[in-house]
Automatic annotation (TrEMBL):
Composition skew (Polar residues), residue ranges: 39-57
UniProt keyword Repeat, yes or no: yes
Domain Ig-like: 138-229, 253-345, 993-1079
InterPro entries in the cross-refs: FN3_dom, FN3_sf, Ig-like_dom, Ig-like_dom_sf, Ig-like_fold, Ig_I-set, Ig_sub, Ig_sub2
Residues of the Fibronectin type-III domain: 365-460, 476-569, 572-670, 677-774
Entry annotated with the keyword Transport: no
Name this protein carries in UniProt: Myomesin 2a
Pfam families the record matches: fn3, I-set
Biological-process GO terms, alphabetical: sarcomere organization
GO terms assigned for molecular function: structural molecule activity
Natural source organism: Knipowitschia caucasica (Caucasian dwarf goby)
Assigned keywords, A-Z: Immunoglobulin domain, Muscle protein, Repeat
Length: 1234
């Protein structure tokens, strides 16, 4: 027995009383007679229109799920559930059918009444300006109802609300607003025909809550609440709240309702990688332990789960994963799901390309390796050959085998086999094997194929046998035809070969028109005579060819197909949308609309408008002649009447589907002071973080001209619009930046004049901040041949009907004399005819009939000046010179004037001009050029004072010119003349014996100074003499002039060797002299050279004790006091004195410490400087070394004193006798003299 409350709750909403205020409002606007007339009109429409309205009304009024009556039972009722259900259904079937028919009829009538009420309410809202005193707070005509549903099933809450003005309805769950963006796909909020609904797609237990719809307008707020209870089956491990639940084991997967959502598309993979093909779906009921029954197929052959194909179903997704792709995996994949209403299928092609070859140019791997004719010790292995497009031809194959369970592969054939089959022998009875194949060509060996299935060698087994005995490859396929399919694919079909010879399939190749390189379209032989080639570049033009395949290889290529541009197949355009009213004068309306989202592969060239009175259902044509613009003025309207419009677009394929009817628009003259709405919002240059928003100015400007615009933006699904700039925008475009890549946004624009802010435009279509693949920007450049300055864009995609529309500051350029536009393939160029500052600005281009291909470039003054300079250089080319005009003095005193250009052609012409007179090649002048080096030269043989002046060369090479000059006057000319005269004399000198190298010095390893020279053009009679200060020097070894070199050794060089040295060379032809002055800097250089050798040979300091003191000595190859030698004590320079004596010999330098004391202890250093480096030697005279030296010095001093004393004593004894004798002799001498 039903509970009274339950009965009341289940009472259909159409049986409830209508709220009286609705009838009162209706009577206020329309008499009963008018209502009858309206009903009569609606009954007079066509049968199909009535059927459409009825279906829409039934769908709208269909109540949400409620608990059936047979679910409501008492706790003590112990009858099994399924018996109770069967009894109730059997008894009440006829009653239910009658009730259902009655419900449908009642619903139809009620929906029509609700439609009339909706129109009345809309009229009331439109006349709100006149009827502000008759406002009405919101009131729910149909309130929310509670629902109890199973987990993972959908539920729909709906209500109908009225009010004046029309209320805004918001949804809440447990007092918290419902945000569809917080859980995409879970919530859906709709408002159709005045019915507000909230749809929860897949309920979970946590969705159990109290839901409320809150309606608000300026007169008040009201709400309606209902509880949603989500139940979970007891099999899930939690308590069940629905009493008894159907036994899930009795539900077969094929009894589920399945709808596919997102399915896998055409996919591309590479050998060795992995790929997943997935389909998302909605399953009702979605039971965790009863997934749908899903089968996967490749080329109509069912796949089984295993290592090579992993399958899973659950969570609303059916997935096939291929963990290690091979070309065997290429084909048409189909997922087939068994559902309540039959099977649900989806198919798409998977392309698998060759992996990188083991060596460059090696072929791809073979495929489809299979064993036939299996015997006890013999098996025939066959396979399919790879496609070879740019690789060298295949010369053969190697077959490998491997015992099952082992990873050791053994090559079966010693030399490559040329056909795609090979008998493998030597197998062991009962053993299982796998086989694989490798292809060979002149570049190397391919990667191995995927191994075959396991094959067991069994005696006399009944196995599949390889068919066919005909030898040779098949003949070439017949005519190849390519037709349009989609914007990235082409449908190719061909005739079968005349000679099949057990055909395995076909390979299809393609190339871009204008290119010589073919590329493979499939990598596994395709069995049918038609194939869809995917992954092509939109707008590109291709040709195709086909080859047939059998076990003996590939046939000859077919004839090429005709060229075809990748474009979608023609179809009618989709419906226009976004109909908006731009102005109204009481007798006409100006309408605008957005172009269809899909043009159908052909340009939309016509629009047709229909209108109807909002009170009727009959449509009337507005225009018989096609409207080509998306703007139309509809005239002959009745003021105060509401009209609805719909628009149909047409192209070459025909007329498309009409748009949805516009909102009822009232024909009432606009008198407001503020502007009307902007319209035709569009986008350009959409990138990851920015875009450009474009719009058109309002048709209705208001009381004054439009002074600017306010641009507002919101994220898709949000109504929180925010202004993008604090100041109004003065132009009709706006650069939007700071976007989040991948996020979708919507925009609207308001015009502003002196009276204020006008109406907002329609909200734009959502746009995703993401650049199209392959997007390029506009490039600015200068044509290398013509010198033209241009802007160019290469489109990433293009269609047959596409056009490049150029704009400056987002105003179309059109036919402008300042620029010219050209297009070649996917590239468009905007060329400036006479560029100057007036051409500066932001240029943009949009490619029509694409997915938004566009670009922009801002032309700045600096960039323009740079390009103008380059343009001038190209239009007035100058021959670039590596070196300008220069001169050099040659031997004999000739002067060569020369220049070098970067490049010269054989057609070059030039002339030399000296002091304004052209000089030609002739006596005294030789003029020539070398194209290879770019050198142009003129040689003046007799250079004299008359040659002073200006030299100029003018060059012409095609269009290019160059001129270079050299001023040779004054001191510069005198220096050149002097050098020329010197070279002339040098030439004369060299006619006889002469010095090829004048005197110079060297220092040998033993520090001997050598004065050397080199002589040339000598003979036996040539004499050679050395002089110093005009005194001849006769060396021990005479000079040998025949050797070409002479040298005078100066041993033990010192200051005494300074002077002027001269070498004289002569014979009967002439005489030559070389002089070197060894003094000043030359002398210092010689001393430094000696110091370098001596310093490098210097020994360590050696201590030597003497009676006078302690002496430090340094031995070297040669020492002279002219060498820069410094002695130091504790880093202090020592000067020669009575205490510290400095000296040396030819073999050493020394320093003696006289009468040493403790003050002289420390480190002593000698430094020998050669002008570049310093050679230092040290000795530490301290500690024990000093003590020993000092004791030795005292000993030697004492010994010397003793020796001296002994000598004085001896002298004392000898000296008196000597003195007496001397005195006697002197006396006698005097006497004689006297």
């Amino acid at each position: 027995m039903k509970h009274p409350e339950v009965t009341s709750r289940l009472l259909p909403w159409y049986k409830k009383k209508l709220v009286s205020p609705v009838n009162i409002d209706y009577a206020y606007h329309r008499t009963t007679k008018q209502v009858s007339q309206k009903t009569a009109v609606r009954k007079s429409v066509s049968q199909q229109q009535r059927r459409t309205e009825t279906q829409a009304s039934e769908a709208m009024a269909q109540p949400a799920y409620t608990v059936p009556a047979f679910r409501e039972r008492s706790q003590d009722d112990s009858t099994p559930e399924y018996q109770r259900v069967s009894a109730n259904v059997g008894k009440g079937l006829h009653v239910i059918q009658q009730e259902l028919h009655r419900m449908r009829m009642a619903t139809k009538a009620q929906v029509e009444n609700i439609a009339i009420q909706r129109e009345v309410k809309e009229r009331m809202s439109r006349k709100s300006e006149l009827l502000d005193d008759i406002g009405k707070m919101p009131d729910f005509l149909v309130a929310l109802r509670p629902h109890t549903v199973w987990e993972k099933t959908p539920v729909k809450l709906f209500c109908t609300v009225q009010g004046n003005p029309r209320p805004i309805v918001k949804w809440y769950k447990g007092g918290v607003p419902v945000d569809p963006l917080s859980a995409p796909g879970k919530y859906k909020i709709e408002n159709k025909y005045g019915v507000h609904s909230l749809i929860i797609s897949r309920c979970v237990v946590s969705d159990t809550a109290e839901y409320s719809a809150v309606a608000t307008n300026q007169h008040g707020t009201t709400s309606s609440k209902a509880t949603v209870t989500v139940k979970r089956a007891s099999a899930s491990g939690e308590p069940c709240h629905l009493g008894l639940v159907p036994h899930l084991k009795d539900i077969h997967p094929s009894k589920l309702e399945v709808s596919l959502l997102d399915c896998f598309s055409v996919s591309f993979g590479v050998e060795g990688t992995s790929i997943s093909l997935a389909c998302s779906m909605v399953v009702v009921p979605d039971l965790p332990n009863v997934p749908p029954l899903v089968h996967w197929y490749r080329d109509d052959k069912q796949l089984t789960a295993g290592k090579l194909a992993e399958m899973s179903v659950g969570g609303g997704v059916a997935r096939l994963t291929l963990p290690s792709l091979a070309k065997d995996d290429e084909g048409l994949y189909t997922v087939r799901i068994y559902a309540k209403d039959g099977t649900v299928d989806h198919s798409a092609y998977l392309f698998v390309s060759d992996a990188a070859p083991s060596s460059a140019g090696a072929p791809g791997a073979p495929m489809s390796v299979k064993a036939y004719d299996v015997n006890a010790d013999f098996v025939l292995v066959a396979w399919k050959p790879p496609n070879t497009v740019n690789e060298a031809a295949i010369t053969g194959y190697f077959v490998d085998r491997c015992e099952s369970g082992s990873d050791s592969w053994v090559q079966c054939n010693d030399s490559p086999v040329k056909v795609c089959k090979y008998p493998v022998q030597g197998l062991k009875l009962g053993h299982s094997y796998h086989f694989r194949v490798r292809a060979v060509n002149s570049a190397g060996i391919s990667r191995p194929s995927r191994k075959s299935d396991k094959v067991t060698a069994i005696d006399a087994a009944e196995n599949e046998r390889l068919q066919g005995t005909d030898e040779g490859v098949p003949s070439a396929p017949g005519q190849v035809t390519a037709t349009r399919n989609s914007k990235s694919s082409v449908f190719v079909q061909w005739d079968s070969p005349k000679s099949l010879k057990h055909l395995m399939g076909y390979y299809i190749d393609a190339r871009v028109v204008g290119s010589k390189e073919w590329f493979p379209c499939n990598h596994k032989p395709f069995k049918h005579n038609r194939f869809v080639v995917h992954g092509l570049v939109p707008g590109e033009t291709y040709v195709f060819r086909v080859q047939a395949v059998n076990v003996f290889g590939l046939s000859e290529e077919s004839q090429e197909s005709g060229p075809i541009t990748v474009e979608p197949a023609l179809s009618t355009p989709s419906a226009p949308f976004g109909i908006t009213m731009l102005s109204c004068d009481g007798a006409s309306m100006t309408l605008a609309w957005n172009s269809p989202k899909h043009c159908g592969g052909s340009k939309v060239n016509a629009y047709y408008l229909d209108k109807r009175n909002a009170d009727t259902l009959a449509w009337k044509e507005v225009n018989l002649q096609a409207v080509t613009e998306r703007l139309c003025k509809v005239e002959n309207l009745t003021e105060g009447t509401f009209y609805e419009f719909k628009i149909t677009a047409a192209n070459l394929a025909g007329v498309g589907v009409p748009s949805a009817p516009s909102a009822p628009l009232k024909c009432e003259a606009w008198t407001m002071d503020t502007p009307g709405p902007a319209y035709d919002l569009g986008f350009s240059e959409v990138r990851g973080h920015s875009l450009v928003l474009l719009w058109k100015a309002p048709v209705y400007t208001g009381a004054s001209a439009v002074s600017g615009y306010i641009v507002e933006m919101a994220k898709k699904g949000s109504k929180d619009f925010k202004a993008l700039s604090e100041e109004v925008v003065s132009h009709r475009y706006f650069q939007v930046s700071g976007l989040t890549e991948g996020e979708s946004y919507v925009f609207k624009v308001r015009a502003v004049n002196e009276s204020g802010i006008g109406k907002a435009s329609l909200v734009s279509e959502p746009v995703c901040a993401k650049a199209l693949p392959g997007t390029q920007e506009i490039e600015a450049g200068v044509d290398g041949e013509t010198g033209d300055i241009y802007l160019s864009l290469e489109a990433c995609e293009i269609s047959e009907t596409s056009k490049f529309v150029w704009s400056k500051n987002y105003s179309p350029v059109g036919e402008c004399p300042r620029v010219s536009m050209s297009c070649k393939g996917r590239t468009s160029r905007l060329t400036f005819t006479n560029p100057d500052k007036d051409d500066l600005g932001r240029y943009s281009v949009v490619v029509t009939d694409t997915d938004g291909v566009s670009g922009s470039h801002t032309l700045t003054e600096d960039a323009m000046n740079t390009m103008l300079e380059l343009s001038y250089a190209i239009r007035h080319p100058v021959i670039p010179l590596k070196h300008g005009l220069n001169y050099e003095i040659l031997e004999k005193g000739h002067v060569r004037f020369w220049l070098q250009a970067t490049k010269l052609s054989s057609a070059v012409s030039y002339r030399f001009i000296v002091n304004d007179k052209e000089v030609t090649s002739g006596e005294g002048h030789k003029i020539s050029h070398d194209v290879a080096t770019g050198v142009i030269q003129m040689t003046v043989e007799n250079f004299t004072r008359a040659n002073e002046g200006t030299y100029t060369v003018q060059i012409h090479d095609g269009k290019a010119k160059a001129q270079t000059s050299l001023v040779l006057v004054g001191d510069v000319f005198k220096a050149a003349l002097k050098e020329a005269e010197f070279q002339r004399k040098e030439h004369i000198r060299k006619q006889g014996p002469h010095f090829s190298e004048y005197l110079y010095f060297t220092v040998s390893e033993d520090c001997t100074v050598l004065l050397a020279c080199k002589v040339a053009n000598v003979k036996k009679e040539t004499s050679f003499h050395w002089y110093k200060e005009d005194d001849e020097i006769v060396p021990e070894t005479p000079a040998n002039v025949a050797s070409g070199a002479c040298a005078l050794p100066v041993p033990n060089f010192s200051r005494k060797d300074q002077g002027v040295y001269k070498a004289v060379l002569g014979d009967d032809r002439s005489k030559d002299t070389s002089v070197i002055d060894i003094s000043g800097q030359v002398f210092d250089d010689i001393i430094n050279a000696i110091a370098k050798v001596a310093g490098a040979s210097a020994s360590d300091l050696v201590m030597q004790c003497t009676p006078e003191g302690i002496r430090l000595q340094c031995y070297m190859k040669y020492y002279t006091e002219e060498m820069k030698t410094v002695w130091k004590h504790k880093d202090s320079k020592i000067a020669s004195s009575e205490k510290m004596r400095i000296g040396g010999t030819a073999e050493m330098a020394w320093m003696q410490i006289c009468d040493p004391s403790d003050k002289e202890k420390g480190q002593y250093t000698i430094e020998i400087c050669d002008g570049v480096h310093t050679h230092a030697r040290s000795f530490d005279l301290s500690g024990q070394a000093y003590t020993d030296a000092y004791e030795e010095y005292l000993r030697l001093k004492a010994a010397a004193f003793a020796e001296k004393s002994e000598y004085l004593c001896l002298l004392h004894h000898i000296l008196p006798h000597t003195l007496t004798t001397t005195h006697t002799c002197c006396k006698k001498s005097k006497e004689k003299t006297g």
